[in-house]
Amino acid sequence: MRILIASLPIGTGHDSAAKALAEACLGLGMDVEFSEHLVGKARVETGLYFWALQHMPSQYGAVFRWADHSPARWARHRQRWMHIGKSQLEAVYDAYQPDIILATHPFALNAWSGIKAIHPHLKIVGILTDLSVHRFWYEPLADAYTVWLPEQVEDLARFDVPEERIWRSGIPIRSAFHAPRWELPLFARDPIVLLGGGLGMGPYYRILRHLARANYPVVAVCGHNERLRWQLDQHAWPSTVTIVGYVEKMPLLLRHARIVVGKPGGVTAAEVAQSRVPFIMTHWIPGQEEANRDRLLRHQLALRADSDLLKWVHELLPEDSPLRAKIIQQQKLWARPHAAMDIAQHLQRL
């Protein structure tokens, strides 16, 4: 079986899910290839996305919500990406001859549907990496979708996606989060870990300034954002604060964390849930991460602390904290550590 995994560099969660899927599929003896053939075509959308988040976040959120309720906008968007697929991906299809396309981004899902319109036997699966389903994820030619929470089944039902095409597998995360392969922590044991996603986005300085007052070890992870790391290094922090860039052994760090603080990306939420560590959400991308935030709160998988951060930190630090125990209990209930392998097994049946 030949699997082609298609994503786009708009956030790191899509790529993380793609790597987890590749690991699982290879483990079952499938042939796996990554497709980056749409990166150039998405350059404008990628640039506008990051520019809007930096300069017009509230307007971006409003447009995101408006597009979710605009069938006409969705139809134009889908037609454009199907045309791109037909004109750009036919040669890719001929070269790789994939049996199944795994799309971890909606633009890739729509583009490859253009090829499925020509080759109906091709199977396409949408791998959802957020906790809600925006209209732009809807693709009538998709053979299946993967979801984590039951609300996502309801989201897809409004597009008349039958339940038998919805796999309740969870969000794919690396197998290392199920069983970290390292023995010793990298930093002080049980630190508070501040995350900003792989791109290090958010009001980092303000949040870290509050956490530094907790008189407790803090590890601030800047991801691939070296500029942010340099900026934070210019400040004088207490000895309890450690600032790092990209952390390869993130499963180990989260396993030893006391509390995780950051924004509610879907993949991050899945990784934190598997790590059994209380999650405090301090900031979020307007639109998709607002929905992630609300659903994590609904299932008591995280706390919201865009104000009174230190209050919640001090409440969660004690081992005997009832609130801490409640969050970890819900994480045990909802964690899906084997989501990637479950999806790979579904592919064999598909």
Give a verbal description of the structure.
This protein has 350 residues and is an alpha/beta fold. The chain has two domains: 187 residues, Rossmann fold; 156 residues, Rossmann fold. The chain is built from 15 helices and twelve strands. Helix 1 packs across helix 15 and helix 4 crosses helix 6. The protein is globular and about 60 Å long. The relative contact order is 0.14.
Describe what is shown at a glance.
The chain has 350 residues and is α/β, with parallel strands linked by helices.
Question: What does the secondary structure layout of this molecule look like, with pairings?
Answer:
Blueprint: E1 2-6, H1 13-27, E2 31-35, H2 43-55, H3 57-68, H4 71-88, H5 90-96, E3 100-103, H6 106-118, E4 123-127, E5 144-146, H7 150-157, E6 166-167, E7 192-194, H8 204-211, E8 218-221, H9 226-233, E9 241-244, H10 250-255, E10 259-262, H11 266-275, E11 279-281, H12 288-298, E12 303-304, H13 309-316, H14 322-334, H15 339-349
Parallel strand pairs: 1-2, 1-3, 3-4, 4-5, 5-6, 7-8, 7-10, 8-9, 10-11, 11-12
Helix pairs in contact: 1-15, 2-3, 4-6, 11-14
